[in-house]
Write the structure tokens for this entry.
Amino acid sequence: MPKTSEVYRKLYHYTTWEGLQGILETQALWATNYKYLKDFSEINLFRDKLVSLICPYVRDGFEKLLKKSPHIKKKISEKGGIDRVVQHDAEVIVDAQYSALGDEIYILSFCGQHEDPNINKSGLLSQWRGYGAGGGAVLVFDTKKLEEMLEQEVKRFEYSAGLIADLVYSDDEQRLKEELSKELSILADTVKQLFDPENSREEIEKIDASNAYIPFVSCISRYKHYGFREENEVRIVALPAVINQGLLDLASADGVTLKPEKEIKFRQKNGQRIPYVELFNSADLELPIEKIIVGPHKEKEARAIALREKFGDMNIEITCSNIPYVG
């Protein structure tokens, strides 16, 4: 899989006017708990796809078992036949992976650089409607530098996973196989081991299913419905580790010193207490913002002037969207 910076040199982050001020002042970006996104169910979108992808490996295991122990055919028949048993066991495996995730998935979204230069210059109308009802803005980032900052973030704090990647849309089967082939292969190998009739119960219990954890996170967080394709979405997906006694015991046994735990913060929105983490909030780091595009608004030019006066020392290009304001 190519690095995101090899696909998109620039990333576009749409935000409200208030959000823009906060980002510029704190030099931090907020990743929100996935359950509080507009459509948190999209993380579960890959569930049925993954079940269908691992079913052949589960079936292969059962067919080998039938050859080795024909007497279990009756038991399988009593449970509804091999198709039903295979489907059930594949679902159990996938649901167990989802359960192991917990709630600590935090997502920060961008749009990748578009093929249409007009969109890169003025932004996507659909995004302005969604994020700029009060006149928002889009920050344009240098992708490579953002990747480097994420590497530093993961080195500074205790994360189970941290990645930045573009999305695979649900109608692109070819890209799904190409982009996620490595991750799917690891998941398939785990399933093969679990259903290999040559493995004893003791051997199966020793199988380290944790090897499939990061590939699983990558798959479910990079898959999205094709209806959102125009966004060219790129995500930072962060899983801050919860440092509990179990993790402390494991670290102690391995002689590992844990990094600081990432603080989970909360903000109020529409009566909800929304959890988020601040990424890159270190005094020695500065966000790689190349440009700010002020969104459609009756006072967009005045807003651009105000930004130049307040943040002029940041050496950021500030322009206005050409998309007409409709108030």
Q: What stands out?
A: The chain has a mean pLDDT of 89. The first strand starts at residue 10 and ends at 15. Residues 46-68 form the longest helix (23 residues). The CA atoms of residues 74 and 80 lie 10 Å apart.
